[in-house]
Amino acid sequence: MTSTLISKQSHIWRALLCGAVITLPLAALEAQTNPPAQTTPATAPQAAPLSKSAPLPGAGAAAAPVTVPSQKPSADIAGVWIDHTGRGAVEIAPCGQRLCGHIYWLQSTVDTKTGRQLVDHKNPDTAKRRQPMCGVQIITNLVKTGTGRAGVIWGGGKIYNPEDGDSHDVEVQLLGPDRLQVMGYAGFKFLNETYTWTRAPASALRCGPAHS
């Protein structure tokens, strides 16, 4: 039983936010990396890597300049967060009485295998498999579930893995004003993968239309 859970857990974070094969290596670190620029077809929109030290350049036709609200240091997890690879960002915002997270920015919105727009082709809902990856809901139904050493713990929701279409339990909490711990697990918290995301600069650009 344990080996089965470990096997399933190994897929939780294999892919989330970037490229045709969206990969998040296992590491809890807050350093951002700016990977080499990717070559894409002339007609393909592509965003530049995020940087907290300089204003962000435009992301081409697919991105509309916006000012990210509430990006000052805050005790709230709401806002835009850069994943630990620096190649994608998720916006956490209220959805009814809970909090949800949608893909806000991607280094590339192009499928490197096809040269076409990156879509959510593994979604279990076949009607959604042609929806652009930018804007896809990644985190659902977060509520306050307790208090840990770092502050309020948010849980009770799910995190979606676009690589295989599976969803897993998720727990989120602030490590500081600009650091967010995101833990995915399959049933048992001791079988988890944990990452540190960093708060995006106010100059962050949305890679597609705002989600409704």
Q: Could you write a compact summary of the structure shown?
A:
With 212 residues, the chain is mainly beta.
Question: What's the layout of helices and strands?
Answer:
Blueprint: H1 2-9, E1 79-82, E2 88-95, E3 98-106, E4 137-148, E5 151-161, E6 166-176, E7 179-185, E8 192-199
Antiparallel strand pairs: 1-2, 1-8, 2-3, 3-4, 4-5, 5-6, 6-7, 7-8
Task: Characterize the structure shown.
The chain contains one helix and eight strands. It is globular, with a radius of gyration of 16 Å. Strand 6 and strand 7 (179-185) form a beta hairpin. The chain has an eight-stranded antiparallel barrel with strand order 1-2-3-4-5-6-7-8. The chain has 212 residues and is mainly beta.
Sheet having the most strands = 8 strands, antiparallel, barrel
Q: What is the percentage of strand-forming residues?
A: 25-35%
Q: Roughly what percent helix?
A: under 10%
Q: Please write the CATH class name.
A: Mainly Beta
Mean pLDDT: 73
Straight-line distance between termini: 40 Å
Number of domains: 1
Count of extended strands = 8
Q: What name does CATH use for the topology?
A: Lipocalin
Label the structural class: mainly beta
Strand order of the largest sheet: 1-2-3-4-5-6-7-8
Determine the number of helices (DSSP H or I, runs of at least 4 residues). Answer: 1
Order of helices and strands: HEEEEEEEE
- Gross morphology is globular
Low-confidence stretches: 1-74
Secondary-structure arrangement, i.e. CATH architecture: Beta Barrel
What's the alpha carbon Rg, rounded to whole Å? Answer: 16 Å
